[in-house]
Amino acid sequence: MSQPKSTSQSKASSKRDPAKARDSSKVHKLALKGSSKIVNEFFEYSINTILFQRGVYPAEDFTAVKKYGLTMMVTADDQVKAYIKKITGQLKEWMYGGKISKLVVVITSKETGEHVERWQFDVQIFNKASKSKSSKKATDNENAAPEANDVPAEKTDEEIQAEIQSIFRQITASVTFLPMLDGNCTFNVLVYADADSEVPLEWGDSDAKEIKNGEKVQLRSFSTSSHRVDTLVSYRLAD
Q: Where is the composition biased (Basic and acidic residues) (predicted)?
Protein backbone atom coordinates (compact mmCIF):
# COMPACT_ATOMS: atom_id res chain seq x y z
CA MET A 1 0.00 0.00 0.00
CA SER A 2 1.77 3.20 -1.15
CA GLN A 3 1.96 6.24 1.10
CA PRO A 4 2.21 9.82 -0.30
CA LYS A 5 5.51 11.57 0.35
CA SER A 6 5.21 14.51 2.74
CA THR A 7 7.48 16.93 0.86
CA SER A 8 5.15 19.87 1.59
CA GLN A 9 5.64 19.67 5.35
CA SER A 10 6.96 22.86 6.99
CA LYS A 11 10.57 23.04 8.14
CA ALA A 12 9.38 22.94 11.72
CA SER A 13 8.16 19.41 11.23
CA SER A 14 10.33 16.63 12.54
CA LYS A 15 11.98 14.24 10.14
CA ARG A 16 9.83 11.30 9.12
CA ASP A 17 10.98 7.86 10.13
CA PRO A 18 10.55 5.43 7.20
CA ALA A 19 10.32 2.53 9.63
CA LYS A 20 7.38 4.18 11.43
CA ALA A 21 5.65 4.78 8.10
CA ARG A 22 6.00 1.08 7.30
CA ASP A 23 4.70 0.19 10.75
CA SER A 24 1.63 2.39 10.17
CA SER A 25 0.97 0.68 6.85
CA LYS A 26 1.35 -2.73 8.48
CA VAL A 27 -1.08 -1.81 11.26
CA HIS A 28 -3.65 -0.69 8.68
CA LYS A 29 -3.31 -3.97 6.77
CA LEU A 30 -3.64 -5.98 9.97
CA ALA A 31 -6.75 -3.98 10.91
CA LEU A 32 -8.27 -4.59 7.47
CA LYS A 33 -7.47 -8.30 7.67
CA GLY A 34 -8.97 -8.59 11.16
CA SER A 35 -12.08 -6.69 10.07
CA SER A 36 -12.39 -8.88 6.96
CA LYS A 37 -12.32 -11.97 9.17
CA ILE A 38 -15.14 -10.55 11.33
CA VAL A 39 -17.30 -9.82 8.26
CA ASN A 40 -16.55 -13.21 6.70
CA GLU A 41 -17.55 -15.05 9.90
CA PHE A 42 -20.69 -12.92 10.10
CA PHE A 43 -21.63 -14.03 6.58
CA GLU A 44 -21.07 -17.69 7.43
CA TYR A 45 -23.33 -17.53 10.49
CA SER A 46 -25.87 -15.39 8.64
CA ILE A 47 -26.29 -18.01 5.92
CA ASN A 48 -26.71 -20.77 8.53
CA THR A 49 -29.15 -18.70 10.61
CA ILE A 50 -31.32 -17.81 7.60
CA LEU A 51 -31.46 -21.46 6.48
CA PHE A 52 -32.48 -22.54 9.98
CA GLN A 53 -34.93 -19.77 10.85
CA ARG A 54 -36.68 -19.94 7.48
CA GLY A 55 -36.94 -23.73 7.52
CA VAL A 56 -35.10 -24.28 4.24
CA TYR A 57 -33.75 -27.48 5.81
CA PRO A 58 -35.24 -29.52 8.69
CA ALA A 59 -34.40 -28.34 12.21
CA GLU A 60 -32.84 -31.72 13.01
CA ASP A 61 -30.18 -31.00 10.35
CA PHE A 62 -28.74 -28.24 12.56
CA THR A 63 -26.64 -28.21 15.69
CA ALA A 64 -26.26 -25.52 18.36
CA VAL A 65 -22.97 -23.64 18.87
CA LYS A 66 -21.99 -20.60 20.94
CA LYS A 67 -21.02 -17.48 18.97
CA TYR A 68 -21.35 -13.73 19.61
CA GLY A 69 -22.60 -14.54 23.10
CA LEU A 70 -25.63 -16.24 21.52
CA THR A 71 -26.71 -19.78 20.77
CA MET A 72 -26.37 -20.11 17.00
CA MET A 73 -27.69 -22.91 14.79
CA VAL A 74 -25.35 -24.23 12.10
CA THR A 75 -25.94 -26.98 9.56
CA ALA A 76 -24.75 -30.48 10.38
CA ASP A 77 -25.49 -31.76 6.88
CA ASP A 78 -22.16 -32.62 5.26
CA GLN A 79 -23.21 -31.52 1.77
CA VAL A 80 -24.63 -28.16 2.86
CA LYS A 81 -21.69 -27.62 5.22
CA ALA A 82 -19.21 -28.23 2.37
CA TYR A 83 -21.12 -25.84 0.10
CA ILE A 84 -21.10 -23.05 2.68
CA LYS A 85 -17.40 -23.64 3.40
CA LYS A 86 -16.63 -23.34 -0.30
CA ILE A 87 -18.52 -20.04 -0.44
CA THR A 88 -16.88 -18.57 2.67
CA GLY A 89 -13.44 -19.78 1.57
CA GLN A 90 -13.72 -17.74 -1.63
CA LEU A 91 -15.30 -14.85 0.25
CA LYS A 92 -12.27 -14.78 2.54
CA GLU A 93 -9.95 -14.12 -0.42
CA TRP A 94 -12.21 -11.42 -1.85
CA MET A 95 -12.73 -9.81 1.55
CA TYR A 96 -8.99 -9.63 2.25
CA GLY A 97 -8.52 -8.06 -1.17
CA GLY A 98 -11.24 -5.47 -0.52
CA LYS A 99 -13.22 -6.75 -3.52
CA ILE A 100 -16.67 -7.36 -2.04
CA SER A 101 -19.54 -4.88 -2.22
CA LYS A 102 -22.52 -7.14 -1.57
CA LEU A 103 -23.57 -10.65 -0.56
CA VAL A 104 -27.09 -11.94 -1.22
CA VAL A 105 -28.86 -15.09 -0.03
CA VAL A 106 -31.85 -15.96 -2.23
CA ILE A 107 -34.48 -18.53 -1.22
CA THR A 108 -36.30 -20.10 -4.17
CA SER A 109 -39.32 -22.40 -4.38
CA LYS A 110 -38.37 -25.78 -5.86
CA GLU A 111 -41.88 -26.28 -7.21
CA THR A 112 -42.36 -22.96 -9.01
CA GLY A 113 -38.79 -21.69 -9.40
CA GLU A 114 -39.99 -18.37 -7.97
CA HIS A 115 -37.70 -16.36 -5.70
CA VAL A 116 -39.57 -15.87 -2.44
CA GLU A 117 -36.99 -14.23 -0.15
CA ARG A 118 -33.82 -12.23 -0.73
CA TRP A 119 -31.45 -11.37 2.11
CA GLN A 120 -29.03 -8.65 1.06
CA PHE A 121 -25.87 -7.60 2.93
CA ASP A 122 -24.26 -4.42 1.57
CA VAL A 123 -20.57 -4.02 2.36
CA GLN A 124 -18.89 -0.62 2.52
CA ILE A 125 -15.12 -0.48 2.81
CA PHE A 126 -13.68 2.59 4.46
CA ASN A 127 -10.62 4.27 2.92
CA LYS A 128 -11.00 2.20 -0.23
CA ALA A 129 -9.52 3.96 -3.26
CA SER A 130 -12.20 4.31 -5.93
CA LYS A 131 -10.10 2.94 -8.79
CA SER A 132 -13.13 2.41 -10.96
CA LYS A 133 -16.84 3.03 -10.61
CA SER A 134 -17.61 -0.10 -12.61
CA SER A 135 -18.31 -3.09 -10.43
CA LYS A 136 -18.97 -6.67 -11.35
CA LYS A 137 -20.38 -9.40 -9.21
CA ALA A 138 -19.24 -12.95 -9.55
CA THR A 139 -22.88 -13.94 -9.91
CA ASP A 140 -24.72 -10.74 -10.64
CA ASN A 141 -24.55 -7.36 -12.42
CA GLU A 142 -26.52 -5.15 -10.07
CA ASN A 143 -24.99 -1.83 -9.02
CA ALA A 144 -22.60 -2.00 -6.09
CA ALA A 145 -23.39 -0.38 -2.75
CA PRO A 146 -22.11 3.18 -2.38
CA GLU A 147 -18.72 3.56 -0.80
CA ALA A 148 -18.44 5.29 2.53
CA ASN A 149 -16.11 8.26 2.87
CA ASP A 150 -16.26 8.79 6.62
CA VAL A 151 -14.10 6.55 8.77
CA PRO A 152 -16.01 5.46 11.90
CA ALA A 153 -14.70 5.88 15.40
CA GLU A 154 -12.74 2.99 16.85
CA LYS A 155 -14.93 0.38 18.50
CA THR A 156 -14.17 -2.27 21.07
CA ASP A 157 -14.74 -5.96 20.28
CA GLU A 158 -17.64 -5.88 22.74
CA GLU A 159 -19.32 -3.00 20.89
CA ILE A 160 -18.96 -4.76 17.52
CA GLN A 161 -20.32 -7.99 19.00
CA ALA A 162 -23.32 -6.14 20.47
CA GLU A 163 -24.19 -4.75 17.02
CA ILE A 164 -23.86 -8.20 15.44
CA GLN A 165 -26.05 -9.69 18.21
CA SER A 166 -28.76 -7.17 17.34
CA ILE A 167 -28.75 -8.26 13.69
CA PHE A 168 -29.08 -11.94 14.53
CA ARG A 169 -31.87 -11.20 16.99
CA GLN A 170 -33.66 -9.34 14.18
CA ILE A 171 -33.16 -12.24 11.76
CA THR A 172 -34.61 -14.59 14.39
CA ALA A 173 -37.53 -12.24 15.05
CA SER A 174 -38.23 -11.86 11.32
CA VAL A 175 -40.41 -14.99 11.44
CA THR A 176 -43.07 -12.77 13.01
CA PHE A 177 -43.57 -10.76 9.81
CA LEU A 178 -42.18 -12.91 6.99
CA PRO A 179 -44.77 -15.12 5.23
CA MET A 180 -44.42 -18.83 5.88
CA LEU A 181 -42.49 -20.58 3.11
CA ASP A 182 -44.68 -23.08 1.28
CA GLY A 183 -43.30 -26.36 -0.02
CA ASN A 184 -39.66 -27.27 -0.55
CA CYS A 185 -37.16 -24.47 -1.08
CA THR A 186 -33.53 -24.17 -2.07
CA PHE A 187 -31.06 -21.31 -1.79
CA ASN A 188 -28.40 -19.52 -3.81
CA VAL A 189 -25.62 -17.20 -2.73
CA LEU A 190 -24.76 -14.24 -4.96
CA VAL A 191 -21.62 -12.20 -4.46
CA TYR A 192 -20.88 -8.80 -5.96
CA ALA A 193 -17.15 -8.35 -6.50
CA ASP A 194 -14.99 -5.77 -8.28
CA ALA A 195 -14.57 -6.17 -12.03
CA ASP A 196 -10.87 -7.05 -11.66
CA SER A 197 -11.52 -9.89 -9.21
CA GLU A 198 -10.33 -13.39 -10.04
CA VAL A 199 -13.46 -15.52 -10.32
CA PRO A 200 -13.28 -19.33 -9.95
CA LEU A 201 -14.86 -21.36 -12.74
CA GLU A 202 -17.64 -22.65 -10.47
CA TRP A 203 -18.88 -19.08 -9.95
CA GLY A 204 -21.03 -18.17 -12.95
CA ASP A 205 -22.77 -14.95 -13.92
CA SER A 206 -26.35 -14.58 -12.73
CA ASP A 207 -29.27 -12.22 -12.79
CA ALA A 208 -30.09 -10.28 -9.61
CA LYS A 209 -32.83 -12.76 -8.56
CA GLU A 210 -35.00 -9.93 -7.30
CA ILE A 211 -38.37 -10.51 -5.63
CA LYS A 212 -41.15 -9.46 -7.99
CA ASN A 213 -43.48 -6.91 -6.37
CA GLY A 214 -41.91 -7.71 -3.03
CA GLU A 215 -41.83 -5.90 0.29
CA LYS A 216 -38.52 -4.71 1.74
CA VAL A 217 -37.50 -4.34 5.37
CA GLN A 218 -34.23 -2.66 6.39
CA LEU A 219 -32.58 -4.39 9.34
CA ARG A 220 -29.76 -3.22 11.56
CA SER A 221 -26.13 -2.74 10.54
CA PHE A 222 -22.75 -3.21 12.16
CA SER A 223 -19.40 -1.61 11.53
CA THR A 224 -15.72 -2.06 12.32
CA SER A 225 -12.81 0.29 11.74
CA SER A 226 -12.66 -0.91 8.11
CA HIS A 227 -16.13 -2.12 7.10
CA ARG A 228 -19.83 -1.41 7.46
CA VAL A 229 -22.45 -4.07 6.71
CA ASP A 230 -26.11 -3.14 6.13
CA THR A 231 -28.83 -5.79 6.10
CA LEU A 232 -32.03 -5.82 4.03
CA VAL A 233 -34.63 -8.52 3.48
CA SER A 234 -37.05 -8.60 0.55
CA TYR A 235 -39.95 -11.03 0.47
CA ARG A 236 -42.90 -11.99 -1.65
CA LEU A 237 -46.27 -10.99 -0.28
CA ALA A 238 -48.53 -13.85 0.65
CA ASP A 239 -51.18 -14.65 -1.95
A: 14-26
